[in-house]
Write a structure and sequence with these properties.
Length: about 300
């Protein structure tokens, strides 16, 4: 049933070839998982399972997560599930790109062992209104992304907790592109004592600085040309931080860069402590580790980005 071949080379290293096993229902995932490596946590031996949760529409940023996972574990599971629970009523759930066949083609050469591809019915059998959910705490849940997308982090935290329970990974990889999400997932893993390690992977960018995102597919040619302005604004804050400018003045300078382009509607540009997510005091100087975060609408397309300075 499992058609991913694991071959051992002359030096003893494991190499994974062939197509991943597709677990398109919970029963198939649980069967696959039961036959693969449970011993790691207690003994540090056995098969170490890495997990990369995604909503599909894969790009080089996702593939980078998979490569990190491949390098650090014996088995790699990728999930593809467009989680309805994390989209607001006016957001892009219906039009979110669904490219399963292409996603599989991209994953196969990377040595992914299992692709978990559940249905909404199986993930939320009782609908999503009346289920027990995972609510992150302030400030992660309700500031910046959480303020503009009020139920987003509850939806993310809930589905990620369900995915962790089903896949039972020993390590899981998330992109720093969604930095607030990464901190939410680290916090839920710590606070709910989940037995795995969450690892952040640096953002992959186009040559002009634009952070890779599945939503970049919505940009038309003119918007695509303007989109790197967000990265330019973030970089300006980082440069200002290096020459003793106050947080407030650095943010003002960067805001001017974005607002000089009338096509942008800026939602936030902020500087937070990269661990606690508390805002840095505006009149003070920068103290590390910090993260500069931005969200803006470019026409109808909402873009987010950040730079972390450690
Ligand atoms: O970042 C994403 O793609 C999603 O928010 C995640 C973590 C897969 C949960 O649905």
């Amino acid at each position: 049933m499992v058609d991913n071949l694991v071959e051992r080379s002359i030096d003893g290293a494991l190499s994974h070839t062939g197509k991943p096993f597709i677990a398109d229902c919970l029963a198939k995932l649980s069967q696959w998982r039961a036959s693969h490596g449970d011993a790691w946590i207690s003994s540090g031996k056995g098969q170490k399972v890495a997990f990369v949760p995604t909503m599909g529409a894969l790009h080089a940023g996702h593939l980078e997560l998979v490569k990190h996972a491949r390098a650090q574990a014996d088995l790699v599971v990728v999930s593809i599930f467009v989680n309805p629970y994390q989209f607001g009523p006016t957001e892009d759930f219906d039009k979110y790109p669904r490219t399963f066949e292409r996603d599989l083609e991209l994953l196969s050469p990377l040595g992914v062992d299992c692709v978990f591809y559940p249905t909404e019915k199986e993930m939320y059998p009782a609908g999503r209104e009346s289920i027990v959910s995972v609510a992150p705490a302030h400030p992660l849940n309700d500031t910046l992304e959480g303020a503009f997308r009020p139920s987003f982090f509850r939806g993310v935290a809930t589905v990620v907790t369900k995915l962790f329970t089903l896949v039972q990974p020993h390590i899981a990889f998330f992109g720093e592109k969604d930095f607030q999400q990464l901190l939410v997932i680290k916090a839920l893993t710590r606070d709910l004592n989940l037995p795995l390690e969450v690892i952040g992977v640096p953002t992959v960018r186009e040559a002009d600085g634009l952070a890779l995102s599945s939503r970049n597919a919505y940009l038309d040619a003119a918007a695509r040309k303007l989109a790197p302005v967000l990265h330019e604004a973030l970089s300006e804050v980082v440069s200002a931080s290096q020459v003793g400018v106050s947080v407030e003045d650095a943010v003002k300078g960067a805001t001017l860069i974005v607002s000089a382009e009338p096509e942008f509607s800026l939602q936030y540009l902020a500087v937070c402590n990269a661990e606690t997510f508390e805002p840095l005091p505006p009149s003070g100087k920068f103290s590390k580790p910090f993260v500069v975060l931005v969200a803006a609408k470019l026409g109808e397309v909402r873009l987010i980005d950040n730079i972390v300075v450690r």
